[in-house]
Specification:
The protein is of the alpha/beta class. The protein is 34% helix and 25% strand. It folds into 4 domains: 185 residues, Medium-chain alcohol dehydrogenases, catalytic domain (Quinone Oxidoreductase, Chain A, domain 1, Alpha-Beta Complex); 124 residues, Rossmann fold (3-Layer(aba) Sandwich); 131 residues, NAD(P)-binding Rossmann-like Domain (Rossmann fold), CATH 3.40.50; 195 residues, Dihydrodipicolinate Reductase, domain 2.
């Protein structure tokens, strides 16, 4: 399929050819017919992408702070890799489209094949031939409404939500500041809502053009100087700003023209810089409008498809889109009259030349899509012939930030690795990976890829798919590397364990990287000749995650399953003992959840003891991980995998070799195993023991008792 992508590092736009995405649970596949350019958002995104890294930092100081905080906890090299990966990536452009449903995933009852729909969402309703849309991000078109009109749905919902925030009543005098596409729609919505509406814009040509269509619209300067005569000496009851402004002048003007106790709704991207006296004296109320409406930026609503109950949240983003489209139908609003240009997607350069030319006045620019080339979930990126047998051919399923920024670069440094196959859910992330790593074949359905002609399978998907994909991989005879955790479902895990035991033709490992760190290896050597058990104190400053983080969802499995396995595995490695018993104690937080602050006591088979303190209550300046190990008159302090301090009878000696969490070590050990055979990098018994211990921790926290772990 064809899709428009923007390289965020250099601002280059390209029309890529990628495999068609596969709808999952609660999703539909839509064949796009029209997509609408969002002039303000896309212009700003492209302009920012074409700035250098310092200019980008000045534009987003909030992100700079987050990077610095991340560097304090996880090291400068990790922060650099993260930033580099974010900048040097492709993002799809567009977020408002319409099309025809061609496939329906499980868990979807409100759509069927053939339905005409309006779609919304950045990274969802992009400029591309096909798109996978979660069910709460699509709306069936009202009867007799065209697909061309449906493509306005998202932009209309933005205007509709802004108008709802105004809380208008009949007879009020409303001013719309900024008469671009969203402003024009807000004006029309207000006009058909029984209020007196005026508009203004800084661009005279736009004002003249709208006046020809009988809009009551003026230049900003005129409104600022004559607002009393325009409002019978009162001032505007309410103002909605749909413009973009970095100077603060727009807010100052809004304060000037509003009446006492008026209401200002900020919808556009404006600098919040205004004279307090004006707003204070008039007691002006400022409100903000969030995108398309309630549900936006809520993972449970957007991704998981959990709707807000209508009696309590009347106007969600989905209901706003449908409400706007119904208004278009019922009042005969001529959306097609707003369209200044329609281009085939292949002529995207012409469209963006107009968009980025500050001198040209336009209203709506739209892409149209001809007859598609069909649904194909496989694409060849290069010649796969002539690969030497001595080289390791790899396939990769999933390629999020962790994979592309940390693991795939390590694989690229190995001269004996051939990047054979890649599977990603959305398809568009493959373009960046193909360019960086040279994958030969791309897929959006792992079923089509799993039996391919490659040696080793790397799994980097969301956690709920790990166990299933490991099983499929080992059944196909591949060496399988699965990023932790192995499983988030104990039932699935036990079936896999039974399959592995006694079967010599199963080859897999789990990404417990910390045991491969040079620091960990030095600590193990330090305690090599011990005669007594060890004690461990493992402190983790986990930090806060947003309430709707995917880690807490059915895809993530929670922080205990997804992270504590790391800390348990390191203690198993350093002690050389299996975990025998676990006890968990926790501070229960929101909704009774105990996954952010807990303490785990671990007993090992030969007497060693461990404590894991995992908390988001610590100071942000505290490093993420600290481990203290004691045994037979010796002590080792491991500080966030940056340095180790050893203590023994002769005093202390400091060993520091830079930040290294063991990623290189684990990947090299795995590839050496693939090439040379022998024992797996991590004994299966240890992987099983750690996995079962994490499930036992959950049971201990639920029951409040010590749980014995099968060794």
């Amino acid at each position: 399929m064809k899709i428009l992508l923007l390289n965020y590092k250099n601002g280059r736009i390209k029309l890529a050819d990628l495999p068609v995405p596969l709808p999952g649970y609660g999703e539909i596949l839509v064949e796009t017919k029209y997509s609408l350019i969002s002039a303000g958002t896309e212009r700003n995104t492209i302009s920012l992408s074409r700035k250098n890294i310092f200019q980008k930092a000045l534009e987003r100081p909030d992100l700079v702070k987050r990077v610095l905080d991340f560097a304090k906890k996880s090291g400068v090299s990790s922060a650099y890799s993260l930033v580099k990966g974010k900048l040097d990536s492709y993002i799809p452009l567009g977020y408002s489209s319409s099309g025809v449903v061609v496939e329906v995933g499980e868990g979807v009852s409100e759509f069927k094949v053939g339905d005409l729909v309006a779609c919304c969402g950045q990274g969802i309703a992009y400029h591309g031939e096909y798109t996978v849309v979660p069910k709460n991000m699509a709306v069936k078109l009202p009867e007799n409404l065209s697909l061309k009109e449906g493509a306005f749905g998202t932009i209309g919902a933005i205007a509709m939500q802004g108008v709802r925030q105004l809380g208008t009543s009949p007879g009020e005098k409303i001013l719309v500041v900024g008469m671009g596409l969203i402003g024009e729609m807000a004006y029309l919505i207000l006009k058909h809502s029984g209020v007196n509406v005026s508009g203004c814009d800084i661009n005279k040509d736009r004002v003249d053009s709208l006046r020809e269509k009988n809009f009551e619209v003026y230049e900003n300067k005129y409104v600022s100087e004559n607002f009393l005569s325009l409002t019978e000496g009162i001032g505007f009851d309410k103002v909605i700003i749909t413009a973009s402004d970095k100077s603060g002048d727009t807010l100052k003007m809004a304060g000037r023209v509003l009446r006492k106790r008026g209401v200002l709704v900020v919808l556009g991207n404006v600098k919040m810089d205004f004279e307090r006296e004006e707003y204070y004296r008039k007691e002006i109320e400022i409100r903000f409008s969030t995108s398309y409406g309630p549900g936006r930026y809520d993972r449970k609503y957007e991704v998981e498809g959990i709707d807000y109950p209508l009696p309590y949240v009347r106007w969600t983003l989905k209901r706003n889109i449908f409400s706007f489209l119904e208004m278009v139908k019922n009042y005969g609003i001529d959306l097609e009259d707003m369209i200044s240009h329609v281009f085939p997607i292949e002529d995207y350069k012409k469209a963006y030349d107009i968009l980025l030319d500050g001198e040209k006045i336009f209203s709506a620019i739209m892409f149209e899509y001809g007859v598609s080339s069909g649904i194909s979930r496989k694409i060849s990126y290069g010649d796969i012939k002539g690969i030497n047998r001595g080289e390791v051919k790899i396939g990769v399923i999933g390629a999020g930030n962790f994979a592309k920024n940390f693991i795939l670069p390590i694989l690229k440094r190995r001269r004996d690795v051939i990047f054979h196959s890649i599977v990603t859910k959305n398809g568009y992330s493959q373009e960046e990976l193909r360019e960086k790593f040279g994958f030969k074949v791309g897929y959006t359905n792992y079923v089509d890829m799993i039996d391919g002609d490659f040696d080793a399978l790397f799994i980097f998907t969301r956690h709920d798919l790990h166990q299933k994909l490991v099983i499929e991989g080992v059944k196909s005879g591949k060496f399988v590397f699965c990023e932790k955790p192995l499983s988030i479902d104990e039932g699935e895990y036990l079936k896999f364990k039974e399959m592995v035991l006694g079967n010599e033709d199963v080859f897999f490992t789990v990404g417990f990287n910390r045991r491969f760190s040079p620091h960990s290896l030095k600590i193990k050597e330090f305690f090599r000749d011990r005669r007594h058990p060890l004690t461990f104190y493992y402190r983790v400053n986990c930090g806060f995650l947003p309430e709707d983080s995917w880690i807490y969802s059915r895809e993530g499995g929670g922080r205990i399953i997804s992270e504590v396995c790391h800390f348990l595995d390191l203690m198993v490695f350093l002690s050389g003992e299996r975990i025998k018993k676990v006890t968990g104690k926790a501070i229960r937080g929101v909704n009774g959840r105990y996954e952010d602050n807990f303490l785990i006591e671990v007993s090992f088979e030969r007497g060693s003891l461990g404590t894991v303190l995992y908390s988001n209550l610590m100071s942000e300046g505290i490093p993420k991980e600290y481990v203290e190990i004691n045994g037979y008159g010796k002590t080792a302090f491991l500080n966030n995998f940056k340095e180790v301090l050893f203590w023994e009878k002769g005093g202390k000696r400091r060993i520091s070799s830079g930040f290294d969490k063991g990623y290189d070590g684990e990947i090299n050990a795995f590839l050496d195993w693939v090439k040379g055979g022998g024992a797996p990098p991590i004994a299966y018994e240890e992987i099983f023991n750690v996995t079962e211990a994490t499930f036992s921790i959950l049971k201990s926290l639920e029951k409040g008792v010590e749980i014995e772990v099968e060794i």
